[in-house]
Each structure stands twice: as C-alpha cells, then as structure tokens.
## 1
Amino acid sequence: MDFRESDELAAHRDAARAWVRANVRPEWVDEQRRSGCHQTPALHERLARDGILAAGWPKEYGGGDVDPDYARAVFDECARTGLHFDGWSTTSMVLHTVLHVGTEEQKRRYLPGALRGEILIALGYSEPDSGSDVAAAKTTAVRDGDAWVVDGQKMFTSTAQVCSHVFVLARTNPDAPKHAGLSLLLVPTDDPGFECRPIHTLGGQVTNATFYSSVRVPGTALIGEVDQGWNAMRVALVYERGVSGPASVDWSLAPDLAAWADGARRPDGTPVLDDPLVAERIGRIAVEEEVSRLLGGWMNWHAAQGGVPGTEGSMRKLYWSESGQRHLADALDVLGAEGLLAPDAPDAPAGGMFEHEFRAAAVTTIYGGASEVLRDIIAERCLGLPRSRPQVKPARPAGTG
Ligand SMILES: Cc1cc2nc3c(=O)[nH]c(=O)nc-3n(C[C@H](O)[C@H](O)[C@H](O)COP(=O)(O)OP(=O)(O)OC[C@H]3O[C@@H](n4cnc5c(N)ncnc54)[C@H](O)[C@@H]3O)c2cc1C
C-alpha cells in the first residue's frame, strides 16, 4: 500500500468540498443536534441523486460510475461539517451482508432500492439483556407457512425512527445451542406490530427501543440460511467495525483547535498557542489523527482488494475511538471554561463542536464492538494469543445432524 496522497485523491477532496458547499445546508447540523436523529433525509436524497451512495457497488445491483474515493471524500467532508449519516452506515453494512449471503432475488430487490436512497436499514441486534453477547438474543421468529412471525424487543435500534427496515437478529430454533439457532430478517417498520420508542443519550443522539408484536414478514425477508444467522452476522460485524461503521469517518480536531489557540489570548496578551504545553498537545492530536487516518486507508485498501477487513477494521475502530476520546478530553483541557460552551451558546469555540463531540464520543468505545472485545480479537487473531473463551463452532443447517 502506498501511504502518500495521490494528486487524484487531493482533486477528489477539492471536488468533495465543492459538493458540500453546493449541497449541504448548515441548519441540518443544528437540526441533527436538536432532534438527536443522526440521519438527514434531505442530505440522503442528494447523495443518492448524485450517485454517491451507489459508488463502488456492483453495476448489476444498481452500482454507479462515481469514483468510490470521491464518494468517500464527500462523506468525510460532510462529517467535517458536523453531520452524521448513521442510517446510511448501517444500511451499507446490511447491503454488504446481503451481497455475501443473500439470494440473487434479494440482491436485486434490496441493493438498487437502497442505492437510490429509498431503503434505509437500522440494526436490531442488541436487546435489554444482550449487547456484547449478542448471540444471547431472545427475540423470536416462528415459521408460519411461507412467512415468519417476529416477537420481542430490541434496544438501541439507532435511526429506526427514519428507517424503512430493521435487520433483526431472531431466535428461530430455541432448542439449538445459543449460536446455532439464530436467523436474520429484514423487518419493515411500517408493520402495525412494530413500535419505536426514543432513548435519549448523553451524547445528544436519540436511539430507540423497538418492539415487535406478531410482525409477519415473508420468507424472502430471511437473509442467509435458517438458523445460520450467526455466520451471516459475523460478516455484518466485520463491516460495522470496518469500512461502513462509525470509524469509517475521520475525526479532524487538530486544525480547529490550533485555529482557536492561535486566536485566543492568555492573560499577558500572547496567543494561547505560544504555550509549549498547548502546542505539544495539539501536535500529538495531529499525529494521532494521521495514524488513525492511515489505519482507515489500510482498512479501505484491504476491502478494495476484495478482502474482508476483519482484524484491520477492529484495530482501526479501537484506535479511532480511544484516541478520539483522549483528543476531545485534551481539547476541553486546552479550551478551559470556553470548552464547556454547548453548540447553542453564541461564543462557543468552533460552534460548540468540542463540547458536543466530547459527549458524543463517550459511546464510541461501546457500540460497534466494545474496546475489550476488540482487544480480544486482536490478541487472538493477530498475536496468536490463547482464546479467553470457548471456540464457537459454525452452526450447521437444520437436519444435518
Ligand atoms: C448510542 C448507542 C447506539 C447503539 N446503536 C445500536 C444499534 O443501532 N443497533 C444495535 O443492535 N445495538 C446498538 N447499540 C448497542 C451496542 O452495540 C451495545 O451497547 C454494545 O454491544 C455493548 O453491549 P451492552 O451495552 O449490553 O454492554 P455489555 O455487553 O454488558 O458490556 C459491558 C462491559 O463489559 C465489557 N465486556 C463485555 N463482554 C466482554 C468480554 N467478552 N470480554 C471483556 N469485556 C467484556 C464491555 O466491553 C463493557 O465494558 C448502541 C449502543 C449505544 C450506546
């Protein structure tokens, strides 16, 4: 892998900035912060209209001609304005899973619709009693003729309030061992048996508890084989920690912090940036943000070669989330009392971004794979250290003994 930024990438970045200037409205950031919903339908429509959602996907399933590096640059630039697009991130993880384990009919049904911006999918894995131990899910799906009937509750079904579907992990065989009796279903959110209730979080994000009361879905909504959901889910989790997950977007705090420190004055009238301790902290943030960016490039490069970025994604997610939390804590230290000004305060540095992101970053070491779990993965798969828990054998199809 070549770590240098090519002229082509720099040109994509310029074009992406121009796209953001022409298409992104500053009030969308305020709206996301006010509502807590990290998905803006108007932005999504524009990303679909200009082929940015469809970039890099197979042509036969609705993929387009837009260069994936340009598309990535557009997402990066959107994120720099403070916008989130979590609904698209989760949708993209599910689409990767459908590509890996779905039927031809499912690929032709779900991919083109999602790439046109018409299908948006939330993740329904976690439950009140199961998060990291996601295979302990209790929500059930029971076969009824050609259909499945889903009953249960999911926790933290983020962006479900604006999604057309939830990718539900359900128990289809209560008699099989924990990992062997699970299946994945795409459940439409317009079913009368579906209910979505908001959960307000410290970071300002409003996620959801979702409830399923005799929700009936056709047999074609089952993604992958019956009772083989755990294997399909492992594909989805790799993408969640890798190219499509929260860590797929870079943080870039150092330039804003340096600009503030250059303009702000110490009691003696000199710039805050003249304080060597401040300059050193900002320098460290800049270096670590670059390391995180390069780990992201390595992960994307691996995916572009046709690989599934498993351990690469875990490393990047771990480094991105833990260094990001450190950087935001450092930034608040440097900013002093001004750092506590929230986005609605008129004089808040960088529009209150530091205060807001500090709160928002608290969950980044929990969702998409908690740090302790990612460390286990890296220790076992990269360093060859012994497993800390028993090996889970891949589930066998029902009836194979
Ligand atoms: C804002 C937010 C958004 C979310 N969005 C979604 C979503 O869209 N869809 C969805 O399905 N879920 C979502 N989640 C849920 C998230 O994936 C879980 O919170 C996460 O998996 C952790 O599960 P838990 O909360 O039950 O904590 P636990 O699993 O109970 O973890 C508690 C602590 O124990 C540690 N721990 C757990 N297992 C191990 C282990 N094997 N070894 C060492 N330490 C361990 C953890 O690292 C953690 O520190 C979201 C969560 C949050 C906070």
## 2
Amino acid sequence: MMRIVFLLLAGIFISQDLVFAQTFKKGPYLQDISQNSVRIIWETDSSTKGRVIYGYKGSMDKSIEESSAGTFHNILIEGLMPDKEYEYQVEGESRINAFRTLPSGIKPVKFIVYGDNRTNLGDHQKVVDAIIKEKPLFVINTGDLVESGLSASDYQKFFEIERELLRGVCVFPTIGNHEVIDPTLSMYKKYFFPPQRYSSVKEYYSFDFANVHIVVLNSYDGIFTFSNEQIKWLENDLATATKNLDHIFSVMHHGPYSASNHGDNAAAKSKIVPILKKYNVDMTIAGHDHNYERGEADGLRYMVAGGGGAPLYSSGQSQYTIYSESVLHYVVFNVYGPDVSGCAYRVDGSVMDCFNWSKGSPIQDAGYGDISADDLSFDTPLIDTSDIGDDLQMDTSKADTEIVDTAMNDTLDAFQIVDTEEVDAHHNPTDVVYDIKDASDRGKDIDLLTDINISITD
Ligand SMILES: [Fe+2]
C-alpha cells in the first residue's frame, strides 16, 4: 500500500540568487497591510537598492525594485488578493517570509491586542514570543512602544525584539505619551506606516477587514487631549463605516475608563465616548495603565491592555470593572460574522479572562466556503486504497484522523472527501485538487476546495 503524504509547501521554495552579505538593522517587517496591499520595510547598514520578490505561497514570481539606493527601504506591494497567503524575500536575505492579506466579506479573523511594551525588554520579549505562537492575522499595539520617542536606540530595541513577529504579522500602532516625548514624532513617522485610506495624517487612522472597522486615535494631538480636527474626523469616519460594516472597535492609548494608576481620561469621556456610543462601537480598547482590565461603563464595553513589558501597575476595581489583573498579557480577539469572542492570556499561556458578544448581520453560508488549504493541517496521510495509485481516499477509520481549521482553531470532527480526482501514482502527481465536505456540527455544509501538493512514498 502506498502512502501519500501532504506537503503544504511551507518554505519549500528557496531562491538562491538573492543571498548577499548585508546587515539588516531592522526588519524586514510588515506595515499597512490591507485586502490588496502591504508594505515591506527594512533598514540596512549600508546603502543599497532594495528589492523584494513575492508571490503566492510556493511561487514567488514577481519582484519590485526601488528606483534609488539607500539604507531605509519601503516597498509597497499592490494588486494582491484578499485573504490569501503570500511569500516574500528581500534582497540580502536567504529567508522566505509569509503573510496573509486581510479578508473581505464575512470571514473569521483572529487578531491580538497588546501594548505598553516599553522599558523591560525581557518582559516585552516574553509577550512577543507568546503572541507568535498564537499566529494572529495582525496585532494592534495600544501605545508606548518605546521608552522615549526621541531615542533611536529605543526604536532599534523595539524592532529587534519584535523582529520575528513582524516578519509576517503587521502591527497597527497607537501613539502613546512616550512617543510624544518627541512632539514631532519624527522616528515614529519614519518607521510606522498606518493605513492612510481614510486619514490624511499618521497620528490617527482607521482600517477595515471582513465586516469590521477599527479606528485608532491619538490621545495627545491636542495639548494632552484630542484635537477638534481629530474629533471631527472620527465622527465622519464612523458615520461612513457604520453604513457598511457590522463591528467597530476604537483604540486609544489613554482610554476613557481605568481603575488603575492613571485612572479615567476625562477628555476621552467627554469628547470621544459620546461619538463611540452614537455609532454603537463594540468596544473601546486602551493601554497606558500597565495592567489588564475589562469592563462596561455608560453602555460601552472597554478594555485596558497595557501589560506588554512596562513596569506593572496594581490593578484596580471600579463600579465598571468586570475583571482586572496586574500581569504581563496579551488579548486574543476572534470575530466571525455577528460574533465576537476573545480571551486575555498571561504570558505563560494561562487564560485569565474571556468574553463574547453577538452583533450585526447573521453568518452567511459563504463564510466557510473560502477556507484555504493554508488554514488546514492534516495529521493523517492520505491512504491509497488501490493497487495502482488512483482512487485516493482519506483513511477516516483511524481514531486520530482529523482536519483542523487553524484559522478558527476548530476541528472538523466529521468530514468526507467527496470528489477526488483520479491520480496515477506512476506519474508522480502534484497539485491534486480535492473537495472536502465538512459534515461536522458547525452547522454548515462546507464545500472546501483545497489545492494540495502531494508526494508519494512507499
Ligand atoms: Fe502611557
């Protein structure tokens, strides 16, 4: 009996022609990822003309080269497809990196919120290492990324600690009071490229994915308050977003509610909260206080996620607090259709607080339809039940047979292959297409089309 083993093509293709001796000070890291584009950014110790090759996973067949040489490289890749995995390689590195574009429509998305990582570098590293294991689509940093916004070495440390994470996961930054130690935000603006589709400035911005809108505010663009210009922009931004999308999250460094050291932000409560409530924002997320807190005040869900590495503050308890704890942590959000769920984790992986709510339109059948092979792991090889190599079937009699949807961390506990192409093993088949039908209790019949490259071993 022949045994056919799936290879999901992770990192198999290696280009040898881009390997040069060159020191990478920062990156490569992702910024400004969207449904159709991403920026690849890196900094080198010597002047060179930057070049990126990229393409679908397993076939990097496109490239972009900068027009002039320099030490700071920022290449915008456009024309990508939503919710697809891509690979890229920058000139001077042999390593191939992968990222996934943001989805459109009703799709499951997992993202992570953390922040206030400044100061204790070892603790910052612990949080980043824990986040990497979670494999989020992207991360949101709630601010105070550096100890001093004036310090080049602080920015250097940030990108060194986050290097492995940011190769394939875009961080959406928030401006904290430690960034505005430099009122011009010159290094912040050099290294971070938040989305500018809805905003003409880098200080505050918004972006969309699936049926979700996220708006990131700057708590300090007035004199330690919100400028009238920003407030006007926020009102217009949310008025547009609510016409098309089901969920809205707002992020700001010093949020309206906190029972810890810094306490409530009076300006956020008086100037921002009425707008967030008017547009039925799901949750407002903050940092600034170096602890975790989740609560509900004035009919608005709020969260403080400031345990990313800065010296921890004692957690407090107000009339609004549902849960609080003083610990290094990160928060996982899962959004799918009307449903939002998530858990806050300590860096040791233990769960401290979970939450969920439902809102918006019902899940559409199409939601599961586009799960790709990249989201699946197979722990049992396909078994060829014939003598000549065709009639492939998955041996579902094995007790440990399972297919895991890693995007949803969900096991398809009942499934069948409904339409395999016949394969002649003697022709060393590749790129065989299977339709896998989910017959599990997730409530949907899923026609799952997977493009899977296989190899055959005896
Ligand atoms: Fe802060």
